[in-house]
Amino acid sequence: MEQAAPWYTERLGRDFHEARRDTCPSCGSADLRRWVTAHDLVQRKPGTFTMDRCTRCAHVWQNPRLSEEGLGFYYRDFYDGLGESSADAVFSGKTSPYYGRARMVEPFVKPERWLDVGSGHAHFCLGAKEVLPDTAFDGLDQGAAIEDAARLGRIEQAYRGSFKDYAGELKGRYDVISMHHYLEHVRDPWEELDIAADVLPVGGYLLIELPDPEWRLGRLFGQYWMPWFQPQHQHMMPIGNLEHALAGRGLVTVARERSKAHLCNDFTLALLLFLGAKAPRTPAPWRPERVRLRRLRSFLVWTLGIPAFFVALALDQTVNRFLAARSGQGNAYRLLAIKA
Known about the structure:
Oligomer: single chain
CATH superfamily of the largest domain: Vaccinia Virus protein VP39
Number of strands: 11
Helix content: 25-40%
Strand content: 15-25%
CATH topology of the largest domain: Rossmann fold
Strand order of the largest sheet: 6-5-4-7-8-11-10
Largest sheet: 7 strands, mixed
CATH class of the largest domain: Alpha Beta
Order of helices and strands: HEEEHHHEHEHEHEHEHEHEHHE
């Protein structure tokens, strides 16, 4: 932590935002509405972030968006560095979504080679091997964790860098390319779709999973709805917009899952973020101040919050589950498309 402190001290107080857009990046409409105002509720790095929604096409995006330098500031020590062990624990904790993604492909293709873009620690690939043991999984990510994943045997080949960097090398090599909770993080998701359409061979499949900005609890919970995940999430694409974007690139949707991709955790995670925002944190390089009576105040917040967690868990298993079943939607969706 002491080694990282000078880097953060030099950058604290900077405004990392670019100029605000007056038109929707998806359809070009100027009919915009402020949708979410949020703070960094996970690491508690300073800053205020807003997301706008296009009234015409319902695309939601960070506006004004962070600069590349700003993204570097907020991503630092989240998935690697000081935050690596925590991130690894989170992604290794629940394997059922990984099985569901792999099973979505099974009726259409028995892939020989599969590339997972934005693979991180490659927990998906590790889980998917249990469903598709004869498939060779490779992973691509900008973080150092992807190289660790190869050393641990979770993937066969690690590509560290951007998708664009490796596009020429990867062209035509994979039966399936997946992007699980990846497109919402990138500055230009349409460019990433262009690359995927170019890299896939004819008859190859693209599998995408994204948070669903049309899920009703997202609007209700505001910044405490975990999938808004500011400041990292840049774009939140409604399922219809994504289907249209894929079709325009010669990718035909063959399967979609909405309620099946849903995780019944909205109430619990919202409460966790709310209490975390109220309880003082331990000092960090970007949060060096020592809060008076920190331990006592944290003890009181979390102790008083324990009964509320039982209520939140019950609401997730009743109200949340009912809403997903009745609406056929959820807090995430999956699309599988074939290159025609």
